[in-house]
Amino acid sequence: MHSAGASTENVREMRPLKRQRTTIVKTPPVDIEFQDLEYSVREAGFRAAPKKILSSVSGKFSSGELTAILGPSGSGKTTLLNILAGYVTSGVTGTISVNGKPRDLKRFHKMCAYIMQEDLLPQLMTVDELMIVAAKLKLGDNVSAEQQRETVNGILKMLGLESCRQTRTEAISGGQRKRLSVAVELVNNPPIILLDEPTSGLDTVAVNNCIDVFEVLAAQGRTVICTIHQPPASVFQKFHQTYFLADGICVYNGTISEIVPHLASVGITCPVTYTPSEYIIEVTHGNKECSSALSQVIHNGKSNRKGMSDQYITRRGVYEDTTEVKLNFNFPTSFWSQFCILYARMLLQLSRNKAGISLQLFSHSVAAVLLGTLFFGIGNNAEMALGNFFFCLAVCMFFIFTYLMTPAITYPTEIKILKREYFNRWYGLKPYFLAVTLQNVPLLLTLGILVILVTYGLTYQPVEVTRFCYFMLTGILIAIATEGLGLAVGSIFNVANGTVVASAIAAPLVILCVYGMGYGSTIESYMKVIMGISYVRFGVVAAMTAIFQDRGPFDCFHEYYCHYKDPNQMLKDLGMLDASYSINMLALGIYALIFRLIAFLAIRYRLTSQFSTSTISNYVNKILEH
Ligand SMILES: Nc1ncnc2c1ncn2[C@@H]1O[C@H](COP(=O)(O)OP(=O)(O)OP(=O)(O)O)[C@@H](O)[C@H]1O
């Protein structure tokens, strides 16, 4: 967004970068080596043969260096980065070692920041606020607010983001967005930074700025690896090492200056009209023979054609001994701190969504007045007793349709942000889920009480505090359970599928909810079991018992016959005479818990499914893939 416009300003912002090298905290050096990495996926369809994405590639990426992974589209760049980051482990063979020892994935996750291609940042927050949240979560309870602020200031200055610190994340330029994605991960000073296509969608100047930042980060002793599409020649010179892939094999591994000799070693001359990097990508694109010839020369990445220039030797000499920082291998913040920080962030975002709040207030007010008007004054009228049943049903339907769709539509986007932050170990899933569960409660309670208050009053229901409270609790619990169901749907499906599934769920819930009402006690027992699937039914029964049970006779305006003078007659005809308010509320509460549990497990599965080794779970994941 706005990338071109921000360019000149960014150049000015970024200039002092190189002069800052001496003042920045050192990080322990981490070298990553991989040998004979193979990765296959099983495509959808039970009989589909495994598809090989990476074939026995090897290589080594060192600390203090900026490495680029390049290659034609579909060559396996992102896949290699995902595997190196530990984001994908299932279906991978070969070895990955860190500083000469086999990679311990748990330890590695804590040292590594992975900035994925889709730089989704939480909305409705300023750059500064987002950085402070990151600092609170990543630096932990033992670091004072002042120190956190200092760290944030230093990083914003280093990455040239000072001028937009009060700008909301949705309004910053594309280049600033990329740098902010890096900035939030830098607060705990990770020694390894992996970036997937950090320059995509940026103009040349913005690309230059980003790569300048990465160069500085590498110069401070970090291992910085990024996948990149064909960068401009000026930018290309900034990479210390390049790793070219084609069709899942390594066709070049080494410094830029050695590409031409490498091509020449298999009899390919790079024309003067091409840059070597462009040409190697072009000749290997779709040309398996050429790719395998080039790959053989460097043993599929095992050999490194590094021109050991003076510049390179000096860099290693300066930064090789940066071993001072001790890594914290636990979450730096406690469960409750994580919850409080996340909850405060969610409430801040909610409170800033003025349009959303106004719309919800409007829709609830309209619904309340509409329901109240449609069923106006029926509360104590024996001839309108059935109307009271429809009133309860309508209130329940309102809460279902209002609270089912919103999470089903909004959560698929949220989960992408969660994926990035969770993978980079900002917080645990439990405090996050607790915060998500409670985030909407204040608004839900306020608007829910408003609807019940207005409708209860306009329909002239009994003026009894207990009855009113029971009725209100029923409405609110239905809303909470339904929101949980929407969250479960949003956690499993993408927006398009989620909307379909949510609508498809709502229809049978309503049908089963009203089935048999009016038959009295003649409903078949198997149907009673099936009807129990509809949690809405428990809500309707609870609402009816709240209003009708243990109540005096209705007003009867008909002289001779008044069928529903006794409220129990209504309950009897609906098959609710022996219904217990507390048991129905308990059932509703159990459903609310089950829906949240499903949502939690679905989110956990989505976050960790890559670590699974089961083919079946892979297959299910594939079906549900977004
Ligand atoms: N889960 C998967 N199922 C099937 N094919 C896959 C899967 N993951 C990756 N691939 C295939 O593997 C190949 C490499 O994908 P990858 O995303 O790593 O390429 P890339 O080099 O990063 O491409 P681009 O530059 O276009 O992003 C592609 O052909 C892709 O379709």
TrEMBL record:
UniProt entry keywords in alphabetical sequence: ATP-binding, Membrane, Nucleotide-binding, Transmembrane, Transmembrane helix, Transport
Residue ranges occupied by any ABC transporter domain in the UniProt entry: 32-272
GO molecular function: ABC-type transporter activity; ATP binding; ATP hydrolysis activity
Cellular component annotations (GO), alphabetically ordered: plasma membrane
Protein origin, superkingdom: Eukaryota
Membrane topology: Multi-pass membrane protein
Broad class of where this protein is predominantly found: membrane
Subcellular location: Membrane
Transmembrane segments: 357-378, 390-412, 432-456, 468-493, 499-517, 529-548, 581-603
Protein family: Belongs to the ABC transporter superfamily. ABCG family. Eye pigment precursor importer (TC 3.A.1.204) subfamily.
Name of the protein this chain belongs to: ABC transporter domain-containing protein
Lineage summary: Eukaryota, Metazoa, Ecdysozoa, Arthropoda, Hexapoda
